[in-house]
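Friendly challenge for the regulars: who can give me the structure tokens for this chain first? No prize, just bragging rights.
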Amino acid sequence: MGKSKSILKVVLPLLLGIGLVWYSLSKISVSLLVQYFTDANYSWIILGVILGLLSHASRAYRWLFMAEPLGFKPKFLNSFMAVYSAYLINFTIPRAGEIARASIITNYEDIPFDIGFGTIVAERIADTIMLLLIIAIAFFLEFEFIYDFFSSKFNPSALILGGIVFFAGALGLFLFIRKSSSKFALKVKSFLSGLIEGALSIFKMKKKWAFIGHTIFIWLMYVLMFYVTTFALPELENISIAAILIGFILASFSIAATNGGIGSFPEAVVIAFSLFGMAEDPSRAFGWIMWSTQTLVIIVLGGLSLLYLPIYNRKKTSV
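First reply, four minutes later:
Bragging rights claimed.
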């Protein structure tokens, strides 16, 4: 049963990704997509790639702040190569990258696996908080648009009633989980407890402000990377900041849906941009350009990292 479950975790996202690739390419001709790639302004695409590199370099450097209070002084290059190796491995087995990154750190920096993996989980908590903050900013800036959009799809009275039911249900679920000792409730309480503990642990670091600064920088680079790449296509030159934020949010979630966002990334972009009246063809083309260029960088740097790690650490491995 456990083996079958593990196989499904690998196979289902891959099948979903393949299905979405087929769906996406059925909505735009390959010749037209190639034309968009050919006509794109690669100066903006290269700038987007550079911003992506900066964000990943910052992620690698940020992790050093977590290792230092634990008594370890890992090399930045090992951390950088571990980050890109993890991204590459996530394309083969979803969410296996974090385990691989912790294993690399254990092999080359002598940091116990449980400690290394714990710091990576704490990093993910910080990243989750940042994504939630971006969602909150998008909601605040575009509250009127979001309200009008849902009002046009649903009766306003039904929306208000739905909101009351939702909050009442959420309150009821909170009280149930708080008092219940069921397996589900214990899992939720453990997750929330870890989330709070991880968030608070950031403020206990010696270099907490440096850590927070890098976290903000990482996500700022992510958003800017997404934004500047839209300039590569003239059809998207008038795109609004709201469309960028919603597109970025949906695209971020799409990466978790399939292996590295294959197939799901371009379609998430189309859904978001269509809300703001952007044409489907350039939106879909942008999604493929964005995903392809960033994926190419991950494949190249991730592959080189896996090859160079034992060479860079040859003195250690030869002992």
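Residues 66 and 119 are 6 Å apart (CA to CA). The longest helix spans residues 280-312. Your move, everyone else.
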